[in-house]
Amino acid sequence: MDNPTPSMAAETQALREAYAALNRNDIPAFMKLFDPQIERIEHFDFPGGGSHHGLAAVTAHVAQGRGTWAEGSCEPQRFIVAGERVIAFIYVRVRLKTETERREGETVDVYTFRNGKVIQFHTFVDKRQALEWAGANTSEAN
Asked: Which of its termini does the chain have fewer beta carbons within 10 Å around, N or C?
């Protein structure tokens, strides 16, 4: 996968654990990494997309989204550290409760940390845009 810088190794490991929690539908375990003032920004074309502020609103948003899954997972493929941000390249493979076919694709989640907690969680569909926004080298998009 990757070798995060030592200063963000704990945060990167915590994100691995958070995705494992999300995949087993353990929303409280997924949310324990987030600051009470968390800001969640999701692509407006996504169901429920937009901005969500505060732990209660983000928890409700995550629970609602995860609640639509019949089965599936969001699997981190690699992580890149850019200063106070961790960029997670995610392979999504889910079947929604209202559908018979699986949905598959890639997204990029960018987490901004402060004092060991996520203060911003931003999802992108475009790798290059995510890297630019995070201040990382766009050659990592490949």
From this structure: C
